[in-house]
Amino acid sequence: MHAKRVIISGTRRLLDDFFKVDEVRFSHERFDGSMSKEQRRLVLERGDAAAALLVDPDRRKVILVNQFRLPTREKSAGGGWILEAAAGMMRDDESAEQCLIREVHEETGYQVTRADPVATFFASPGGTTERIFLYCAEVRRANKTGQGGGDESEDIELVEIDLEDFFARLTARQFQDPKIIIAGQWLRDRRAKMPAETDTNQSRTYVFSFEGTDDRIIGIKTGNILAIRDVEVWVNSENTDMMMDRFFGHSISAAIRSHGAQKHENGISIIRDTIGEELAAEMGRRRFVMPATVLQTSAGELAKTHNVKRVLHVAAVKGSLGAGLSTTLDTIDTCVDNVLAVASAGRFRSILIPMLATGQGGFHVKDVAPRLVERALAHFKDASKAKLRSIYFLAYSLGDKDILEDTMLAAPGLRPAT
To answer: Would the pTM of this model clear 0.90, i.e. be above it?
Structure first.
């Protein structure tokens, strides 16, 4: 869109105070190429502002400010008191980021540890030049170095809201501050990728009983797999070449390999690649296996540290030269059937299955989760095979957890365990 002509025929300042008001007479080029008639407008000049929706990721809290705003008294639900994102006017000598850090500390006492830009927008383009630089910023209890409350002319109350309650109130349209609404929607769009647990040593369990019994359950384990210490069998998703990830990778395969390895007495150096060597021995002279093949190894040191009795490696993704990695939903079904059958044949009581083929396989969790739960139900319904008593699925992110939970709530034969 190219700039059109604007002719300013006169400017007169009507108010020169904390805010400034100018009377401007102008004409502008119309969309048909002609010039408009001269018009008169009042323009409020109040400078630009920086604002942030504050999130404490450790405590899963959104932190808002509550204060009296006279212009909202007649129309706001709070009679003038309104929840807002922390915000303040930018000084001539500072950037939006510098203003944000200063204002957040003045109003809340928190030091910002991270700030992600959300949007820059005009507050009310029909009447004021003000732009708002909006962020979503992380703060933590350990970085609260001040009392907050604003300067001597302000009376600010901090309001903390649980993250899930915040999203529920956002959906219910309970907020009146556009900064909260815009940044809240931005945060909600990214919620699915947020870790289910901020503490890598923490995992929570959500349990659903099968057909009203307490002896067979399908459940969700959240967070890092290394935080889980009460499941006998771990499933490791591999490619058809069955080559585990390198020790310092960020995958489940890398975690199982590195933490299952025998360590030097310093606890760091690896003496023996226990699980990796056992898997290579199982492969023998083979370069690849068929999709959905399951190979077994011991748990190595994980038997001592995490009470794991067996690791089942399943070829969930097929690798092809020049074609990359791929799989099908039918292959995922067979993978689940096979690992459950092997675990039951070994008379193990519990098994942990990750979100198969949602990484390199390319499938979305919403496509995979229903298949995983369906196959778990089918396994329990076949009494001749079902030696397992607990089938868990690993949800690393909040999105994984939500999708799995919704799937289980909708599944016939499952109900939340009391």
So the answer is: no
